[in-house]
């Protein structure tokens, strides 16, 4: 049986998911979108050939509802949706920090909810989407979520208790790498390189290192040691990173991100 999927609140991530699904073989006729502004809805219709509907119409028509609005807008959306969502609908939330219990309390009893934390590399089909089941979600519901999010990258199932840690590590993770590239670019300029050349050198080093981490099967310590010759340039750089507490700072930063995710989940925004 054909499953109809609706993406509600289709912003950048929602559009990336929509386009990934179409590239993955989903028929536009099986996809619905909603958007706050009529011109945005028309743009999505023109770009992808999908039907733009109201939130209430999406809730009535689709088998799976993917909620991609901002966390602060989720309460109002659920208030609007609740009268129209039957208990057999699968509800997938992409809102950071909001637990499945929040949705279960506001929707019909027994509604299956799946929580997904993805990240911005979804825009280039290199996302990591972390998927957790709510109280009423089955393995089949998790599989459906994986099928949907596979169009924009990889997915990983975790218990919901680990979602805050995954948000800190993966959801916010791209920002840490951008921060590192920014700092290394500034260092390249200090060492006498033009900004564009420093940028190109660092970005390619990052891509190459990431591919080696993914494909070699080697532990990162082993890969680092392969670059670190005795009394060479790299070990001098590593010593300075350790002297300045970079490792400890990264651990503290991720703990801070996890703690903030917990605060958001508890409603302390």
Give a short synopsis of this structure.
By secondary structure, the chain is an alpha/beta fold. The chain is 53% helix and 13% strand.
Rg measurement, Å:
21 Å
Average pLDDT confidence is 94
Structural class: alpha/beta
Give the total of beta strands.
8
Shape call: elongated
Strand order of the largest sheet: 3-2-1-4-5-6-7-8
Helix and strand pattern = EHEHEHEHEHEEHEHHHHHH
Number of helices: 12
What percentage of amino acids are in beta strands? Answer: 5-15%
Distance between the termini: 41 Å
The helix fraction, in percent, is 40-55%
Assembly state of the chains shown = single chain
Major β-sheet annotation: 8 strands, mixed
Poorly predicted residue ranges = none
Write structural notes for this entry:
The chain is α/β, with parallel strands linked by helices. 53% of the residues lie in helices and 13% in strands. It is built from twelve helices and eight strands. Helix 7 packs across helix 12 and helix 8 crosses helix 9 (195-215). The longest helix is centred in the last third of the chain and has 21 residues, at 195-215. The two termini are 41 Å apart. The model has no long low-confidence stretch (mean pLDDT 94).
Q: What keywords describe this structure?
A:
single chain, 269 residues, alpha/beta, eight-stranded mixed sheet, 8 strands, 53% helix, 13% strand, elongated
SSE layout and pairing:
Blueprint: E1 5-8, H1 12-23, E2 31-34, H2 38-48, E3 51-52, H3 55-61, E4 64-67, H4 74-81, E5 90-93, H5 100-106, E6 113-117, E7 127-133, H6 139-149, E8 153-157, H7 163-171, H8 173-190, H9 195-215, H10 220-227, H11 233-243, H12 246-265
Parallel strand pairs: 1-2, 1-4, 2-3, 4-5, 5-6, 7-8
Antiparallel strand pairs: 6-7
